[in-house]
Amino acid sequence: MNYLYAFLTGGAICLLAQILVDKTKLTPANILVMYVCGGVALSACGLYAPFAEFAGAGATVPLTGFGHTLASGVKEAVEKQGLFGCLTGGLTASAAGISAAVIFAALWALLFRSRDKNI
Amino acid sequence: MDKNAYSKLAAEREKRSPSLKDCTFAFLSGGAVCALGQLLKELFSALGAETGTAFSLVSVTLVFAAGLCTGLGFYDKAARVCGAGLFVPITGFSNAVTSPAIEARCEGAVTGVGSEIFKIAGPVIVYGNIASVLYGVIYYIYLCAAG
Q1: How many structural domains compose chain B?
Q2: Per the CB 3.0–4.6 Å rule, which of A8, B36, B67, B70 could disulfide with B75?
Q3: Could you tell me if B84 and B26 are in contact, meaning their C-beta atoms sit under 8 angstroms apart?
Q4: Which residues pair with A33 in a beta bridge?
Q5: Are the Cβ atoms of B132 and A71 closer than 8 angstroms?
Q6: Residue B89 three-state SS
Q7: What is the ipTM of this complex?
């Protein structure tokens, strides 16, 4: 059942982005920024945590989940360290994803050459 | 040809993306990536990881796999068909980091790979960070006000 919920919710989040791509002039980069900020906002309102509880990877794998990670990290850090936590919480919580992206991208850049995109 | 006539002509010739097909592929592929994420999460949980750690490991694994597929050239081909289904999940973030890194390889390690790596993914981190710091400040004020 977990898989079905993850599939349906994750699919719906991507579907919404696709509708935005098709029907508006927003570029994918704009939509990704909106999604991350939207994830932060939904998490700040306390809506994203129960959604993630229900949807599992359907909520954490899309980029809105990245926003949720940032926001819940900040929330926890502010509770522990006060105002200073604003600066440390977000990136601490999302460090694994960002570091992995950088390390692996550098590795793949060493191993692969760019290829013709228009094949 | 003046500007108005040109934009009219451009609008007529513009390749309209067939919306229903795009949306179906986006839904199915995005859902599939998330279901795969759920499978990995159950796997890491079964191996003894806590829920939070398990989801972080899912992100790391998907980032690794999507980067590899980008390097092998599969990801961009699939993304052309699947659209948002492959750029909204964390795999799309990985693709957005890996793709310019590979492209910039010939421009050197520092000014090439080093600076281009966040060319597309940078805005996401910048604005995500700004939004989360703003939220932190508001939350701090709320905590102070609530005593």
Answers
A1: 1
A2: B70
A3: yes
A4: none
A5: yes
A6: strand
A7: 0.90
